[in-house]
Amino acid sequence: MLQLKLYQQRTLNELKEFLVDTNKLVSGSKIEPEKALKLVFNIKNEAETYKSLPDLVNTPYACIKIPTGGGKTLVAGYSLSIVFDNYLQDKNGKGLVIWFVPSDAIRSQTLKNLKDRQHPYREAIDAKFGNNVKVLTLEETLTIQKSDIQNNLCIVVASLQAFRRTDTQWLKVFQANGSLLSHFENLVEDTDFLDKDADGQIIYSLGNVIKINSPLVILDEGHNVQTSLSFEMLRVLNPAFILEYTATPRAESNVLVKVLASELKAEKMVKIPIYLSNTTQWQETIRDGIIQRIKLEKLAEKEKRQTKEYIRPIALLQAEQEKEDDDKVYVGKIKAFLIEELKIPEDEIAIKTAKNDEIENQELLLPKCKIRYIITVNALKEGWDCPFAYVLISVSNIGSRIAVEQTMGRIMRLPNATDKKNLDLNYSFVYTSSENFSKASSAVISGLEANGYSRADLRENTGKVTVEKTEFERHIQDKSIQIPYMGTKSKKDPLSFNRDLIGELFKIHENYKPFKVNFHDDQNQRIKIDIDKENEIYRITQGKLVLVLYPEDFSIEEVGNWLKINLRHTVISSSEMNQYIDKALKDLAKNHTVEELSLNRFRLKERIQEEIQVIINAYAKENFDKLLSKGEINTKSVFYTPERIIAISRLSPEHYQKHLFERSGYMNGEETDLAMRLDILENIAWWNRNREKEDFYLQGWRSGKFYPDFIIKTKSGKYILTEYKGEDRLSNDDTGYKDTLGKLWESLSGDNRFFLVSKSNMDSFLKEIATI
């Protein structure tokens, strides 16, 4: 049998303790199950409060949080014996289990694995229940006999949809069925809870059979159940116990056990961190991803020579759609690009879509299989697993219905759950095609969160391996942390640049002002000379994009179209951007030739972006000042409370007594000096190295958020925000902006303070805060 990982065994142990303690209270002290459940759960989870299900207050409902790749189904298999042995003892290891899955794809996969006596999932169940196990489809259950349930553990694997009234299978579950007559013979218990027909007679339905047998309900990816409709569905099953397994619990879930992503990494279960690369051109995105896969295969060959382990890295390519459309990057277009442009052998490429499944009968893990590239749309987003999948290449529009986050979990499982000698084989790689890296990053982070991970597991791919983040708990116990954000009176969220300062009425083209572009640097002059050579074709690299230039084909329309494809901004719609570009090109064409504009399109793009940002910042500043003058901006509406556990990428070698968390992030020499002197101040309750882009921030009239370097809390309860700057950066524009914004926050937040600190004023700063 497969040996359990430490976190898996811990999960089962904690589940058992919960059941044993609850059962003791119910049977020994005669306490109502609901009260016993709340008491035991709340003792074991101080941060959580047990929430009873409507109309099922005496039915235990517990949730196990395990990130994707952590073996939820294996743990669920072992948990059956835990529940039957320690809470449902009266069933004597016999009865009904309804195993709900979120989709037909996962249903097919789960059925296949649970029916296979050689599979670890089935072995986990057979270890307790022996040969007295029946695994059934919903259709097979329509003819189940009373003796089947009396003499076996009958596991019915079904999708949630089948038990909803909107699904055609619902009728099969709840309509009269003569094949089930034996279940209703000699009923002696109260039958009021069973469904009746118009004449008041019990309906011989599968739904009533389930109710009679009061099943254990397993919710695989239980977050899909969290709607009032789904809870009503659970109620009509009359469950004896509900056990949910998910990577992303909802607010209504009673999370009994939480497995951290770091535990999976420590047990060599997943390929994290994930490295993200983004380019604007879909062809370049694919090319970069393919190069990475080839690099990984070379490392895999080296790994095989060293350890005998066979790995054939696979790249998943996510198209925008399956149907042919010249305006979309569809499946066929990607396949043609792989074969014709990148010269990939066709037998190494497979398509996996709803209509075309070329990997259905392929043994992807065997050396005889040639497949290295799988093109899909969203058919792999669930119910598919292959540890050889290392690279995800998504040219699907970021933010669309079919986005990269839906497929993230497919590349995270580490082959054979063992560390590889060649480091890159322990990681996974995502390549996206987006005009905005921030959007791509947000989409990937959403995918990580949807699989139970966090932004701590993401890296920007620079081609270098970085140290993995480590998670740390609070070191200082302070339950009253509420650091005031800058917000508005009318909203319960921190001030939003897009929502509050830009809004929906902003029109970029209405704010257009003529501007100049300087193209005549040394590089462009050289390019211009080259291009003027008669009848020559030149290959010129600007940035990362390689252009083949034909002087006679230049047109102002082509320049405009290129800019419209490559210029994007989060607060500007495409139509608005297009109008602005048209105005800008019309003006610039008065002083520059079409060839000059085309040849320098990258510099032109940058210059337009700069001008747009100036306009946006000015507009935002005007609105910010209006809100401020009206008294709308305050620090009394919304507050920041740090997480109990945080991830840190690069650790400081120092250990501090008063740092809020067990460890702090890396600091340079001057910052470390400040931290060490802070740490010994008598009046400091705690201080925290504020993580960039993850922790507390101030939002001002510029789009970027300001994350102060340090947050300090004094024993008198006052908060001090501190930004540290080297002497060489004290006078720059960014520092001035942050200083102004920080002092504004100070003026709005009562007794709290803000300080801009450098080496020259460190002594006076420490002397002053020692009295706060």
TrEMBL record:
CDD domains: SF2_C. It comes from the Bacteria. Residues 3-250 form the Helicase/UvrB N-terminal domain. GO terms for molecular function: ATP binding; DNA binding; hydrolase activity. This is Helicase/UvrB N-terminal domain-containing protein.
